[in-house]
Design goal:
mainly alpha
């Protein structure tokens, strides 16, 4: 019995932490905790997180820029519509 529990705390603990889930018994929170642990543990994961943060910042900038362009475009189209309606035909 001691040998069975000794393996989980010894050098094979990583295999227990990163084993695949069996069925639907694993909670979503536990899955995400394992995933974030894997990402932070490996260097590839840290590079992925950096790219993810960069993409998030760029995405927020694009959304803000499109909102500004939308407002300016609406103003220009309203001015154009007023100019067209103000034309006097003989």
């Amino acid at each position: 019995m001691a040998a069975a529990t000794e393996g989980r705390q010894g050098p094979f603990r990583a295999q227990v932490l990163f084993s695949k889930p069996k069925g639907m018994h694993m909670s979503i929170k536990r899955h995400w905790l394992r995933l974030t642990h894997r990402i932070w543990k490996h260097e590839r994961g840290s590079v992925f997180v950096e790219y993810l943060l960069l993409a998030t910042i760029v995405g927020i900038g694009v959304i803000a820029g499109l909102a500004a362009v939308r407002t300016a475009l609406i103003k220009e189209l309203v001015d154009l519509a007023r100019s067209i309606t103000a034309i006097n035909w003989p």
